[in-house]
Prior knowledge:
heterodimer
Amino acid sequence: MTLIATEELRSMKIFRLAGLALALVVALLFAVFVGDQGPWYFAWVIGTVMIVLISGAGAVLLDAQEDGVANTEKLS
Amino acid sequence: MDFINPQVVDLSRLQFALTALYHFMFVPLTLGLTFMLAAMETVYVVTGRKIYRDMAQFWGKLFGINFAIGVATGLTMEFEFGTNWSMYSHFFGDMFGTPLAIEGLMAFFMESTFVGLMFFGWDRLSKPGHLAITYLVALGSNLSALWILIANAGMNVPEGAHFDADTMRMQFDSFVHVVFSQDAQAKFVHTSVAGYVAASMFVMGISAFYLLRGQHRELAARSFRMAALFGIISSVAVITLGDVLGRMDYEKQPTKIAAIEGLWHTTKPPYEPWILAALPDDEKQVNHFEINIPYVLTPLITHSFNQPVIGMYELEEQAGPRIRSGIIALTALRRYGETHDKADLNLFNAHQDDMGFGFLATRHAPNQDVTNIPADQLDAVVKQTQPDILPNVFVTFWSFRFMVFLGGYFFAIFAVAALLSLKNRLEANPWLLKATMWSIPLPILATEFGWITAEAGRQPWTVFNKLPTFLSASGHSTGYMVFSLAGFALLYSVFIAAELYLMFRFARLGPEEHGTHHDETDALLSHFHGSHA
Ligand code: HEM
């Protein structure tokens, strides 16, 4: 029973790794081809991801700032 | 040759301009809000905090209202090409129709399918599954814009195609060239990030409204922070890409850039000033007054210190030989149609780059037939045609300036907003909150000015240097055009009233009420499921 579960887990891990490797290859091909042929398209993809992440980070920072204030208030 | 009524052409142009500008009131929000929703939901999935789910759902509802009306107004435009611009569609259909069809088949269906899943999948999909759907909606809506802008770039810079004398229309040489043309790329990114700017201002403005009233603070402060950061980077991007577009116009559309900058005469680098404001007079071909910023023009436009920008007088002069060459092209084409003689085809091919200038001369040719101009009248026809190569300078000059001034304002306001939000000092500065609230419509206005710059600046052509606008329209009656224009005006006024009513209503109701509605819907659904169980 446990043996089968470990086997399954292992093959799932391999699948996941293979999936990630494939995504990496696609991303690399995309970077090489589109980066060359379509510099602005490429900039759009990278830029949009960056904008999304930075604005998300801003929100998380706000959470941290508010949690910080709440903790200080509790302490004092 | 049988000619189209100029009144019908003007009415067709008016109808297209109105429907396009109207449609584009909805597009920027769709392009930008989808990625903002994705950003909010990403934070929800990563942190697990429910407030971000509430945010994504609340802004998602406002997005939904905008999306529905945006799609409805976009559909009519696709038909307009066939109904009102049939000559254009015949001439350029191969080039224009292909991206349009891809847009319809791929992006539009992708967008619509996933929008449904996004709205109704919250409780039915896993968290990462729903997040993936939201990203696909964002990608789909931006891909729609991509294909339309590829098509539009083809009209502005028709490369990757040639005119075929047997089929009498433009045909593809290279699809890849069309998709990856520099103009298409820059146009897409400029327009897409203009949408990000519009969405950022929208979210920031409504959040400011709540902060000013002390309502929904948790949601409003987070939304404001995210929008301010989204907006500041996007406004830098829109300015950068604006510069790229200006440089591209300089290289590929000299009449457009000369009109944009109000340059009647070729510049003498490097000391040329950039005209901040002026009153260009299209009739007299002068600027009545100018406020100048010295030294700026040459590096701004040419990215160098020594290249001149050709002025409109000189462009008119240069058009003379092209008009003559175009008349030869059309005469050879007509003969080839009758004789199918290889010599005529060769002559046409040698002059085919100038064919559009021959078309432009038809208005001034005796009997509107350029293939039969008596030798003693040729000079006069060419002379009369030369000024026709210029767009309306006043409109192009000022629409560009309004867009650019607004771009500068957006950068400034997002920078201050981001700074104050990061310092948690928003409520201490109500002036900023009020300014952002009142600025909600401005990015939409800037995009409208952008389109006016691009499309008025492209005149007198529908396909730049290939097909004049006055030869592109369908042969409808004036009555038909007036009737359909009135119909559109009426219908679209109802649409805009509905959109504004719903937007104000839901924005006023706010997220809590939204939450309650959601719970009510859930309760109703579970009751429904329960009674069937
Ligand atoms: C501030 C600097 C800006 C510059 C230098 C700039 C430059 C340009 C130029 C040259 C065009 C005409 C492109 C063509 O030939 O077809 C254009 C079009 C356009 N602009 Fe801007 N722009 C700026 C800011 C903005 C802003 C702030 C927005 C909106 C938020 C905007 C939205 C648009 C749109 C929607 C178009 C029409 C689509 C296109 O041709 O790409 N622009 N812009």
